[in-house]
TrEMBL record, chain A:
<dbReference type="InterPro" id="IPR018785">
    <property type="entry name" value="CDPF1_dom"/>
</dbReference>
<dbReference type="Pfam" id="PF10170">
    <property type="entry name" value="C6_DPF"/>
</dbReference>
<feature type="domain" description="Cysteine-rich DPF motif">
    <location>
        <begin position="6"/>
        <end position="100"/>
    </location>
</feature>
<dbReference type="InterPro" id="IPR042426">
    <property type="entry name" value="CDPF1"/>
</dbReference>
<protein>
    <recommendedName>
        <fullName>Cysteine-rich DPF motif domain-containing protein 1</fullName>
    </recommendedName>
</protein>
<comment type="similarity">
    <text>Belongs to the CDPF1 family.</text>
</comment>
TrEMBL record, chain B:
<keyword id="KW-0347">Helicase</keyword>
<feature type="region of interest" description="Disordered">
    <location>
        <begin position="846"/>
        <end position="870"/>
    </location>
</feature>
<feature type="region of interest" description="Disordered">
    <location>
        <begin position="90"/>
        <end position="110"/>
    </location>
</feature>
<dbReference type="InterPro" id="IPR014001">
    <property type="entry name" value="Helicase_ATP-bd"/>
</dbReference>
<keyword id="KW-0378">Hydrolase</keyword>
<keyword id="KW-0547">Nucleotide-binding</keyword>
<dbReference type="Pfam" id="PF21010">
    <property type="entry name" value="HA2_C"/>
</dbReference>
<dbReference type="Pfam" id="PF00270">
    <property type="entry name" value="DEAD"/>
</dbReference>
<keyword id="KW-0067">ATP-binding</keyword>
Amino acid sequence: MDPKKFKCSSCGLTADYNHFGQTPLKTAKKNIVLLEKAYTMRNPFKSNDGEFLVVGAHCSICGDVVCVDPDCSLFYSKRFCLNCASNNINEFPLPIQKEILHNCKSR
Amino acid sequence: MDSFNWERHRTTLNKIFFRDKDFIKEGTKEYDDFWLFFKKFQVYEARRKSKESHSASSSNLSSSLDIPMQYHPRYRINISIVTKDIDEKVHSHRHHKEKKKRKRKHQSYDDDFGCEDDELSSERISQFRSVILHYLDFCQKQDFVKLKKLKTEQANLPIAHYKDEIVKAIKENKVAIVAGDTGCGKSTQVPQYLIEAGFTHVACTQPRRIAAISLSKRVAYETLNQYGSEVAYQIRFEGTKTKATRILFLTEGLLLRQIQQDHTLKQYNVIILDEVHERHLQSDFLLGLLKILSSSSHRDDLRLVLMSATINLELFSEYFQGSPVIQVPGRLYPIQVQYLPIPVEEQTGKTSRLDPRPYVRILQRIDKKYPSSERGDLLVFLPGMQEITTVEGASQAYAEETGRWIILPLHSTLSIEEQDKVFDMAPEGVRKCILSTNIAETSVTVDGVRFVADSGRVKEMSYDAQYKMKKLQEFWISRASSEQRKGRAGRTGPGVCYRLYSEDDYDALADYSTPEIQRVPLDSLILQMKSMGISDVRSFSFIEPPPEGAMNDALRVLTEHGAIDSDENITALGEMLAQLPVDVAIGKMLIMGSLFDFIEPVMSVASVLSVQSPYTRSAYNNPEACTRRRPIESDHGDPITLLNLFDEWIQMKSDSRSSSRKWCKRRCLEEQRFYEMANVKRQFQDLLKDNALLAAIDDKDIPETSYKRRQRHADKKRLRELKNEERFQSRKRKVLKRTDGKYEIDNSDDDNDNADDHPSTSITSNVKDLEFKIRHDLDKLYKASSVRRNFTLRDIIMLKIILVSGLYPQLAFPDDCNNYSPDSDQIFHTKNKLFVVLHPNGYFSHHPQELEPTGREDNSLKKEGQSGHRGLLGHRHQLLTYVSLLETTKPYLVNTMRVPALQTLLLFAQSLDTNADCRRIVADGWIEINLVDPNAAQSIIASMLQLRNAWDQLLKLRLEATKNESHEGFTLVRKSKKLQHFLSKKLAEFLDSRLEYRLRRFTTLERQKLYVGPGVNDDDVVEGGFGISMTKAAPDAVKGGMKLADYLTYNCLQELEESSLSGDYLRQFWTCPVCQIKMPMTVGERLRHQAACGGSNAEETNQETAADSKTSTSIPQLQRSYHCDVCDEDFMFSAVEILKHKRTHKA
């Protein structure tokens, strides 16, 4: 499992990811699945080999690679980069709309 | 969620969700965390639901994005748990439950009444599952924040902007210099940059072990490799390096050792020398070595990176000409400097103590100017421990009066627990005032310091090569270190630095501190250089060469110890000494110990002398602790007392019922030191084994019992767990609390030995305990220490002789006027340094009576008007050997041991000079031995010659044997065994000698008129005069007389009175006690014969010892009378001796 480079198109965060797909990691416990195709790495803050950390995924609208930081993207049944989310803000339920506004401001 | 009682179903839930193969396992930390989260989440959900019911804004509009418009937090989570097997589990669980219920209903009807609501329905199960999902999501977010924070911090470091420049410079040049001040991030980032740039084996040296460890932890964390070994450290006794390691932090000393083994350092492709500006001895040497290596063609691929502060940069760039220098700004907050010179009346004179008032005024000044609500601690730099105690007393009074300060001392002799207090927090409205030596300048970094008060002074060790004496002297600091001290105020926010000197004083300070190489003994350094094949040490290209005189002194010391010969070439002994990471004297002890199969106790003594003293600061003024230690003390002196302490500690350690921690605490001893001793000892053992000086005892001979093996594996596993625990539980800062007028750490209970209750200390001490047990075979240690409890006096004397063989010429002679009472200083003289006193903490300064000379008054001297102990005639004169000389307020002898004078001097003196009848012997030109009986005198000199010959030969054999391991080596070993046997026996006799003598020290004036001078008493050169074996002799060109051995000059002393009739010219019939030859000989001739006759080779000595063992008086039975026709003489010869005698004629 060679580490590959992940780079967020929004904030520029880089990280070596170990796996891309709907299962978190080859070594991870089998009963977990992801609801999106995501970039995962071995969780560096846990001693256990099976632990994973999702770093980012592709925006379901524009396809850009974004990290899971709330300043860069949000997940609501699908992944949206903050740009696409704010462009389509009216398509989201209210609590999410509030959040998009808040995150855009904080950015 | 409602009031449903989840706790009731915990067991069931465990079976469904927290099995071994599940993401969260029952019984782990995550599991506990989950339940905490679960409770909080329930509360949160309850609140959310009540809110939602008010603002239920469910729009049924569909979204063009194909997402549910009916909001539910569930959709915000991108993780799901596969449910198939959970459903099965739930089903089977329900089935099981039903059955149970039915059963129970038969037994009792009241039991389960009306509990339908409490049932774990499938809705409940899915509710629970969703909480798990929320928990997983929460964890993911938390860890992602960590990741992001780490990456942002890295990007924000000043050095991050120079990343490309640095990498480029290193790639394109063999040597590059990175200069940056505190906080720029060079130590953590540069190794990472290099790994990213494709280098695979990066070594980074650190001057301090702690830094190597903490940097490796930090960089491992930053490279997201906290749990791997890609980033590792290696220090003297431990390391985390594996094959996967790409970045290694190691100490300078360790890299030096590695260069010794592999001159080209093939294992690395980049070497970073960090903190080179600190100019430690080893880093200066490394600079020189690596400069040579990088300019040689052997390692064209090797890259060298020097990292330093921005001070004295020209020096380095000049040394490595043409190398690029990248300067990175530091990151410090602005610091305001105030000069507050101490008024004349409060200044410290040469002898008076420091006046604490100016320091107390700083506390007052801070109190006046800054509200106590503004946090920020004060760090005071004082010259030394004594000054710290003075200021501590005075400011303590102020602190108690105001209740606004906690006074904490910080210096290296404090126990580790006491030192750690400076990291604890002061309560609200109270500031810490840390009174520190220069230890806080670089080694210890305390966060939260806003104010610095700088005395401008430092106590530093310097070295007086003439007396081989260390001196602790007070100096002005350099401007560089004054800036460094100031910088300590600006690490966490803007700060203030009060300088207790004027701006003019500041301007007058030296630019930089004196580098270590200019002020320490160079013996070990030069020996290392020699062993690396640097023959011309004087022309080695140091960045700043050490003074020529210091080099010459070191070379002289090495010659005296036999580590280099008169042409300054390294000897076999020197090669061996260079392998041992200790002082030459201690190394020599070890080698000599291995000659006599007496190595076990010698290794222990060498270890106890190589680590810091285990006594804590309060050890000497705590009467209870002193009483408890008394039974362990040895009247032979400090080294043996320390050995006993170490042995006793091991006994405590192996007794599972007793706590070694408590034992140490009650005796005011620092347990850490004992662990260090055990480690050092283990290292000696390994090194001696590697060099074949210690027979590798095959542990495999004694099969390990399966119980023991299991135990060991269990211990190892437990250690791993504990270490992991320790890693997370990095010492938590505690809040300091005020008790009994002093501030103590909250809930610590130091006096009641309950420190084990501290979770953090107990983990650390458990780790140490386990590590100790795994690393060392406690049984073996225990046995050795028990053996020593049954040591006879003779064993101890033997041990002492071996110790002195290393320590010689570190001897002190008692002053005639000593009164040997504990109330006053006992004065001693070394050969070069007069008037030194016993160190107040040493054994003999409490028990000087042990040193009182015994013997009877000698009338013949009395009438000459000599008084005191001078004329005492006896066989128990004693000298003191010492491990070091240290001058603080006075010159002190440190770690002293009493030794028998005659034997020590005869065995180890570099030069022994005698008069014609050998009754007067002068050792090393400063101590005179006066024997009564000339025959006894001659025979003891003869024994001495044999002993020293045999000893030399044994040493040679042993060192030779270490070089070849073939069968030739085996015969060498056999030979040396015989020699060893002979030597041990002879030595025992020699040490038992009860010859009476007087002992006297020469005054400097007397020393000048000691010898008859060249050309006198040297005209009887009869080479092989009688055809019997004799050692060579030659006139001594300086002293006069005959040089009978390297160390023995016969008849070169000026006679004091014209009484000696038995001069050298008078031949008397004499029978050699060894070979029974009988002939007329002068005293000189006899000695020469005896030196050759006894112990000249192993075969001979073997026969003799065989004969000796039959009749202890050494009259061989196998001899018969023999008449030699060539020399026309009658002899008593054995068959072999006849042959030998004949052979001398042929030659």
